[in-house]
Amino acid sequence: MASTNKTLSFGTQGLGFQLLGLTIGTAAILGILLTAQGYFAAATALRGQAATALVAGGRGTVDGIDTWNESRLRELRSLAAARVFARVLEPGFDKAKKEDVDIANELMKSLAGSSPEIQDVGIMDSTGKFVATTDGKTVGTVIPQRDYFKVAMDGKDFTTGASISTTTNNPAIFHSTPIKTSSGQVIGVLRSRSGLEEVIKLVQGDKDRVGLGAQGVLVDQDSLVVTSTLDPKANLKPVVELAADAKQKMADSKRWGNNKVPDAMNDPVLHKLAQSKEPTSGLWTTAGTDYQAAAIPLRTLKWTYVAGLPVNSVSSGLSGFLKTVGLAATFLIIGAAILFIGALRQLVVRPLQNIVETMQRVASSEYGARCEVFADDEMGVVATQINETLDNVLRLVQSDEERVSLQRNVQQVLEAVSLASDGDFSKKVPVTADVLGNVADALNLMFENIAQIIGKIRDGASRVNGAAGAIQSESSTLAAGSRNQVQDLARATSAVQQMAVRINEVADSASQTAQAADTSRERAMAGREQVRQVIDGMEGMRSSVVKTLHQIKGLGDRSLEISKIVDTITQIAGQTDLLALNAAIEAARAGEQGRGFAVVAEEVRRLAERSSEAAKEISDLVGAIQQQTTESVRAMDDTAAGVERQVKAAYSAGATLEAIAELSQRAAELIASINKVAQQQVSSANEVVQNVDAAAGISQRTATNIEGTSATTTSLVRLADELNGVVQQFTVN
After folding, report:
1. Spatial distance between the Cα atoms of 165 and 287, rounded to a whole number of angstroms
2. pLDDT tens for residues 18-30?
3. Which candidate, 82, 733, 212, 122, places its Cα nearest to that of 454?
4. Where are the domains of the chain?
5. Which residues are within 8 A (CB) of 666 and not within 5 positions of it... i.e. 6 or more apart?
6. 639-645: long-range pairs with CB below 8 Å, 24+
7. Predicted local confidence at residue 22, as pLDDT
8. pTM for this one?
9. In whole angstroms, what is the distance from residue 606 CA to residue 597 CA?
């Protein structure tokens, strides 16, 4: 009978498996969808905030580099406007006045000494020859092929890309500006060489400001790396392989100094970012690390600054989110399993209890007892089969022996069903050849299916318990990390706010300094005008002194002529006296006839004596005049030399005051630029504060979510323990 009536089959498509599969599948799909949706939303938001922070920080760096470049050009342009540079080049440097050359050298030294970054300032004539430099190393060098010379000779300011200095063998940048005559003709070039220490410091400062793992690369217009925080040895390396003619041209212009052309980095993504004309963002992979990158072009140069933040640091907050969603999905699955177990108890235990009660009544000889069929499922089929068996038994049992055997078999079935109702599915129902054989087969197959389900639930509960404990530990660690991150962001916000206050103070000081510089410039201009008036007066005095000197020298020459005339008169007087004496002697010889002639001779002698005395007085007077004239000429010569020295000193003072006025003008422009940049820095700092506040809010919410997740995980551990306790009540092989 048992072999012909075993028609029941309980496979994996039974009610329990269907319910378990449906519940777990639904929960898993829901968890996956929630996790995926949350991940993509959070990833998009975090990357957007990272890009915003990179652009905000990068703008501050770019503004700093632009300001630095503008300052270098403005200083050089103001210096070249001094007319002394045109004066030393117009006649040819070798023929220029020494005082003009000295003034030009002093002005160049003043600019070179104004900043430690300025390594050299030099003058180039129209042939490209250095005629004067502050370091003296390149004087006489002729380099008309350099871009900074050719562009400046066309009347334009120029800033080179980064290059290796042939003098220092260190990275440098060159600025140049034309030297013009008063008519606007370009007759030479003023060139400066500056180190890149300040630029490198600005890039490094942005790296430290943006966040952990952040990097920055500055690329010039020729796709050469100016500086890189990723690899300090990458300076002056081409980002991608250069064309042969472009590489040769740069080598001829000494872009790498006296060194060989370095190997290219071969980074096409960085090259594409560096070619951006507008701020842009994107993903960039280098040295095995993925970066969220932002490219910001400079305003005054055709350079581009590329800042990057590791993607893993951008999405590190997603791990907490994923764990939270994963926990929620796991909790749903556990809840579904618990509901399934409740349904299993309702669908299996209750019908089993009914079967036990029915079998107990049959064992007590109540052969009319029948099982209640609760549902059209496996248990309903078993109950129906038992009822049919009892009907057959009632018809077939004819003797006491059969009744006793049937009672014994029923008792065995009852014991197995009773153990099953208590959760022990390890006992098998003996399969007999009587009418209870089909019931035994059905019960044994059902017990095996239930035992398999319970075994799977037990394994799942154990894994859930272990995973819940690990998740609880992870949640505690994440919660602590999030709290620390919130504190760090709070400190960062405070630091940036203090920085903004200090920048405002710098801006105020810059405004006051600009006013003082304007006042200094006005006074220097007034002093220069007064010196010009003094120079004009000194020029007139010098002309008068020279004219008077010529007149005094003429007077001396006339006194010499008078001396000659006096000498002649003296000689005539002597001859007259001698003639008078001879006439007197002759008159005495003549006697009385010569008496009248003797009187005349005596008068002539007296006249000759008076003439001789007068000539002597005139000679003495002329000698005194000649002596005074000589002394006057000597004094006037000294006066003329002194006036000449004073005129030169006045010219020098005028040039110095002119240079002071120009330097004051340059200082005023520089301070105005500093004030403008300070205002931009205040704006950038405020943006950074807002971004940090937003990040702090996200971190605070993340910390709150993680703490809530930790509490949920604790409940999950407790529920997993309860589930284990419930499952342990069942006994299976």
Report:
1. 29
2. 444 545 555 555 5
3. 733
4. 52-313
5. 74, 75, 78, 79
6. 639/545, 640/542, 640/545, 640/546, 640/549, 643/538, 643/541, 643/542, 643/545, 644/542
7. 46
8. 0.50
9. 14
